[in-house]
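Quick one: structure for this chain?
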Amino acid sequence: MAMKRKLYLGPRLRRLRREQGHTQAEMAAALEISPSYVNLIERNQRPVSAELLVRLASVYGFDLSRLDGAETDELFASLAAAFADPIFQDAGVTREDAFELAAGNPVLGDAIAALFRAYRSAEQELTETRIAGNRAADDPVEEARTFLQENRNHFPEIDETGEAIAEEKESGALFDRLAARFRRDHRLRVRILPADVMAGAWRRLNRHAGEIAISEALDQASRTFNLALQLVLIEQGAVLDRIVNRSKFSTDAGRRLARSALANYAAAAIMLPYGPFLSAAKELGYDIEALGRRFSASFEQVAHRLTTLRRPGAEGVPFFFLRVDAAGNVSKRFSGDIFPFARYGGSCPLWTVHEAFRTPRRIITQIIQLPDQSRYFSIARTVTSGAGGYAAPHIERVVVVGCALDDGKKLVYANGLDLAAASAAPVGVTCRLCERPDCAARAHPPLRRRLIIDEYRRLAAPFAFAFD
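Got it. Here's what it folds into:
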């Protein structure tokens, strides 16, 4: 009969104790064991028994599902990617070392992974400052994006409020239920008005007339979103201010943009309430179009909402998000802590972001690989914004969502694909930060490499550079 593997949880127990603010003696008393036993367990000199696991779950709410190795696998992936960076090339650190650290001391592993992310972020910001002429310090758009990134684009109290509003026991479509709430609680009627009457506005609050006007040029998903957004601005203003004021902004415009982004988040939380949306996403294999039909939302609304599913214990696949126009301008992006977007400059021309413009409204999938060998699964599709009507201006953009390659198997778009064996397109973050030497699509040489001018030969790549 096979022997059962002993369970050592020293670093996890130490982290749990510190999170609770307990001493070893206090934890020992709570678990009805001796302080010396706690000390031995934390130093991995004693295994954890089944009985003690039950006590941990009962006293501290320790999630036993965390023992399935998922946390270790995620941390190992982060550490392996970090140790593959050239900064560690002389240290002799291997993937086996990364696994031993993730499994044996996850507290230290988390700290190293966080330190490496901070290093990469600082290095990239310093490099991009040379491109942008030091615009980052006073760029309100970048400040707002940083605010969302620092919060992982997840705001629990807003999600809870959104769920409560969505779950109110009233019949009818969400738009009609929100309109009824305005009449009942705020004495405001909702009217759909012609575009010429709205004079270019999509939504207008007129307290004097006691009405909220919505442009008939909007489709139903956009009408509902705008009505939800107006409700948020009226009912949740203090909450928005409290959350935004937890962060520091160098510009007032940055703070206002962050507050506006937070209000949009809250409107999405009403249209796509966290619990039901996450459940449906898993059921449908994160099929964005199917989710849009189920929740009467647009492709972009659903794609953006997928990046917010970070509730502890009820998390979805970690996604990154990008929205780009035909000229390559990035109007929205969120890295999800997994994809290193550049703050300035265009995206890589080898990515399907640009191919999608040639096949409107068709979903294109792609496996991509960055220079650091990290791989991702991405999907791209065009979306159209603008008022409805033959002569009305329309703006076409491409929305991209993606995830780590290992998570791609959870997506309906990867059905029938062998992701591990499939070839990957070699892409970069942006030309000035990408150091691939043989890219024929390169528009600029990398900033950190010495340019080589050779009059005696012509390479396929437009620039040659040295790595010394």
